[in-house]
C-alpha cells in the first residue's frame, strides 16, 4: 500500500496536471502527498580570492526564492481542493542539479509522480533529465502522467512483461495499483525463445504468481519482429482502453538520460497512458 507520494515540480507544462492526478491517487490510498519545489541556485563565480558570494549573487538568490514562494503557494491552493494530507516542500540545489535533489527526496516516498510532455515538445529534455535521475537514482517507482490524460477509474492495467529484474521490480512496485484494476493483461512483446532459462511461458508464470495475489490476469503474446516493443505495448493499451501500463525501466546510471533503453525512451516520449516504470 502506498502511504507517501512525491510529485516533483520540474517546471514543465505538465506539472499542475500531474499534481492533480497525484492528489487523486493519494486519495485512493489514503496517502500523504508532497509537492517538491526545487530552487536551482547558481554557483557563485570564483574570483581572485576564491568562491566569495557577492551582493549581486545574493539578489539573484532572493529573486529565485521569491519566485519559488509564489509557485509553492499556487501548489498549496491546488492541493487544498483535495481531501488529502499534503505538504509543499521547498528545497535548494546549489552544488548539485535539481533533478538529483529530487531523486534524493524521492527515496522517502513509495511512489513518484511526474508529468510528461507533448510529442516533440521543447520540454522533452527537461522531462527526460528528471525522469532519468528519478528512475535510476531514487530506487523508487516513477509514474509518468501524459499531459492530456483524463483521470478515470482504473479498470484495466497492462504489464509489459519480460523476465528481467527491472520488470519484476515494476510488477511488485505496482501491486497497490494493480489491485484497483478489474483485469490485468500480461503482454509479452518481442522475440521469444531466447536461451535465458526463463521457461517456455514466462508470461504464464508471472500471471500465475499475480493470480495468487488475488488479481484477475490474462496473458497476451505479441511475437512481432517488425514492430517495436513500445509500439506493441501502446497499441495493446489502446485496444483494451487501459488506464495503466507497467514496465521495467532500463538504462545506465553513469550516462543518465542519454543511456535510457530504446523502449523506455520511446514510452516516455510517446506514451498516452499513465506508465509506471521501475528500475
Structural summary, described in words:
This protein is of the alpha/beta class. Helix content is 38%, strand content 22%. It has nine helices and ten strands. The protein is globular and about 65 Å long. The protein has a ten-stranded mixed beta sheet with strand order 3-2-1-4-5-10-9-6-7-8, sandwiched between helices. It folds into two domains: 4-145, Rossmann fold, CATH 3.40.50.620; 156-278, HUPs (Rossmann fold), CATH 3.40.50.620. The chain has helices at 15-29, 55-79, 98-106, 124-137, 165-173, 175-178, 202-211, 229-240, 262-270; strands spanning 4-9, 32-40, 85-93, 111-115, 142-145, 156-160, 183-189, 217-222, 244-248, 275-278.
Write the layout of secondary structure elements.
Blueprint: E1 4-9, H1 15-29, E2 32-40, H2 55-79, E3 85-93, H3 98-106, E4 111-115, H4 124-137, E5 142-145, E6 156-160, H5 165-173, H6 175-178, E7 183-189, H7 202-211, E8 217-222, H8 229-240, E9 244-248, H9 262-270, E10 275-278
Parallel strand pairs: 1-2, 1-4, 2-3, 4-5, 6-7, 6-9, 7-8, 9-10
Antiparallel strand pairs: 5-10
Amino acid at each position: 500500500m502506498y502511504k507517501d507520494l512525491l510529485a516533483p515540480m520540474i517546471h514543465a507544462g505538465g506539472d499542475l496536471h500531474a499534481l492533480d492526478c497525484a492528489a487523486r491517487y493519494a486519495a485512493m490510498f489514503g496517502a500523504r502527498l508532497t509537492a517538491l519545489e526545487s530552487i536551482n541556485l547558481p554557483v557563485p563565480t570564483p574570483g581572485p580570492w576564491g568562491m566569495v558570494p557577492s551582493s549581486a549573487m545574493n539578489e539573484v538568490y532572493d529573486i529565485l526564492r521569491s519566485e519559488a514562494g509564489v509557485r509553492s503557494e499556487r501548489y498549496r491552493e491546488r492541493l487544498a481542493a483535495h481531501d488529502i494530507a499534503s505538504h509543499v516542500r521547498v528545497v535548494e540545489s546549489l552544488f548539485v542539479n535539481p533533478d538529483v535533489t529530487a531523486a534524493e527526496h524521492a527515496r522517502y516516498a513509495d511512489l513518484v509522480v511526474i508529468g510528461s510532455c507533448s510529442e516533440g515538445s521543447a520540454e522533452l529534455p527537461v522531462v527526460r533529465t528528471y525522469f532519468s535521475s528519478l528512475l535510476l537514482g531514487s530506487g523508487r517507482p516513477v509514474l509518468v502522467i501524459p499531459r492530456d490524460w483524463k483521470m478515470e477509474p482504473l479498470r484495466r492495467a497492462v504489464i509489459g512483461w519480460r523476465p528481467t529484474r527491472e520488470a519484476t521490480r515494476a510488477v511488485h512496485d505496482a501491486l497497490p495499483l494493480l489491485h484497483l484494476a478489474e483485469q490485468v493483461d500480461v503482454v509479452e512483446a518481442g522475440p521469444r525463445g531466447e536461451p535465458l532459462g526463463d521457461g517456455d511461458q514466462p508470461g504464464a508464470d508471472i500471471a500465475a504468481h499475480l493470480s495468487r495475489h488475488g488479481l484477475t490476469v490474462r496473458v497476451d503474446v505479441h511475437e512481432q519482429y517488425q514492430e517495436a516493443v513500445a509500439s506493441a505495448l501502446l497499441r495493446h493499451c489502446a485496444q483494451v482502453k487501459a488506464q495503466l501500463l507497467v514496465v521495467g525501466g532500463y538504462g545506465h546510471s553513469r550516462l543518465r538520460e542519454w543511456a535510457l533503453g530504446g523502449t523506455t525512451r520511446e514510452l516516455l516520449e510517446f506514451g498516452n497512458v499513465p506508465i509506471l516504470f521501475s528500475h
